[in-house]
Amino acid sequence: MTAISRPATRRRVNLAAGGFSLPAVVLVAGLLYLPFLYTVYLSFTSYNGLGTPAWTAWDNYRTIFHDPDLATAARNTLLWVVGTVTVPVGLGLLLAVSTYGRRFGTWLRLPFLLPYAVSGVGVGVVWGFILQTGGAFGQALDFAGLPGKDTGWLLDAPVNTIAMIAAASWQSVGVNALLFVVGLQSIPREPLEAARLDGATGFRLFRHITWPLLRPITTVVVGLSIVGSLKTFDIVWVMTQGGPGTSSETFAVSMYKTTFVAGDYGVGSALAVALTVLTLVVSISYLRRQLSGARAV
Amino acid sequence: MRSLRAVPLALLGLVWLAPIYLLVVNASTPATEYDSRTVWKPHGFALFTNIGDAWRKADLGHSVLSTVTYSVVSPLLAVLVGAAVGFAIVALRLRHGFFWFAVLFAGSVFPLQMLLVPLFVGYADTSLYDTRTGMLLVYTAISVPFAAFVMRNFFTGVSYSLYEAAVIDGAAPPRIFAQIYLPLARSALAAIVILQATFVWNDLLLGLTLSQSDDVRPIMPALTSLQSAYGGSALPTVLAGALLVSLPTVALFLATQRFFVRGLALGQF
């Protein structure tokens, strides 16, 4: 019998294993799981932070389904998802493909990468300043002889949401490009060279060889973008606080405002649960489609 | 010919740098000379005065100091806690280890919104609300799932015979952990700390929800309230504040790009 398998030792090791796991389990159970469950419970109650929550079954969910402001939030969140999946992902891919393997490629990518390290709040402050009515962007349009000098970029829906998606894209194109570059690095040389020998170049080479081989990393980038955009909060909170009125709210902003501005914890919790369910459903169905597609290829 | 194709890319790169140019130029404009109609032109160099104003008058200084504490201490604690549970699962063969691993990792799947109300209510009840301890605690807990995920995967790649040899040499688990496993994992530990420190530094939502005083409030919520309280002629101060709080993460990111990408690809899916 080795020292490791002796029963007395085994018992001591089990004890140690428990001790080593305890802090992680306590922290995660206490500060993540317990609050999670409590939010689910609160979503079925009426509660304003005082006294005790009163059970109201599905009332909060009925409320959020019939609230016109939440229809706005749903529309905006959808815009965010679509905008984020197309612009930063598409531009990131373009940037990666056109700089990969090229001299000074890293330097060409650097300007796009810098904004990624700026926080959502920082991006919001800078772009809020740029997109002020008659601000830097308006002046640039005017200088180029284009209309739009006095457009209220952050004042009218849906332009305000689109303007903020542009700001978010400014931040995230670089990191998407970087992830695609990592994907390109992992593509084996042989199929590319074989295709080149067969005379495939440029777009055809990309369309038929590179793009299919990039699929795993595309799945990751698109998946991250969907999940991230569903939770959009920081940039909107800084640039418009969801306003004017509720015109640029996303689900995450509505959740925060309902809870901490209006003080309606029950409905706020129901919104949080709805957002979670939405995130899970969307990401699981996306991943399942991607994975089954990969098997079919 | 090939180098000509770089021209549009370089031009697009310049467009991408324009917001940063505007940030730097207008954060440097003396507050008295700021004119919203001429933001593209430099107006002198008062960057340090403006940063000083943001630091003192707008009280960002306190927030910066607290946020430095949060984004150093919490990731370090989280990485220790995560490494410990990874060690327990892989080396000590914790019973139902994979189950506990899955439970811990699933803790990072749901959106932060699920935690806000209970944390706010619970913190108010236990007088953790608006305390540095409370902020450290929540940032640590939030960083644990990712740390546990990466460390468990890292330790899986370490040969078990290393553990057996240490046991035969008479070392107890705490010593094996501290003197063999932790030093082995230095690069993974560093990657986690860098990623989580950036996350904590950039956090808005938890800070907004769980703190309010200047001493406790992290930097990002402090910057947003600076932005809504000031405006107009004080805009250079706000922009100087934004520049100030962005510098650490930009520097860290540029210095450690590799870790970032690996962590991103590793952690989120």
Write up this protein.
- The complex is a heterodimer of chains A (297) and B (269).
- Chain A is mostly helical and 297 residues long.
- In chain A, a hairpin with a 7-residue loop joins strand 1 and strand 2 (54-55).
- In chain A, helix 1 (7-42) crosses helix 13 (265-296), helix 2 crosses helix 13 (265-296) and helix 4 runs antiparallel to helix 7 (159-185).
- Chain A has 2 domains: 1-30; 70-253, MetI-like fold, CATH 1.10.3720.
- Helix content of chain A is 73%, strand content 1%.
- Chain B is mainly alpha-helical and 269 residues long.
- Chain B has a domain at 66-223: MetI-like fold.
- In chain B, 74% of the residues lie in helices and 0% in strands.
- In chain B, helix 4 crosses helix 6.
- The two termini of chain B are 40 Å apart.
- The relative contact order of chain B is 0.15.
- The mean pLDDT of chain B is 88.
- At the A-B interface, helix 1, helix 3, helix 4, helix 5 and helix 6 of A face helix 1, helix 3, helix 4, helix 5 and helix 6 of B.
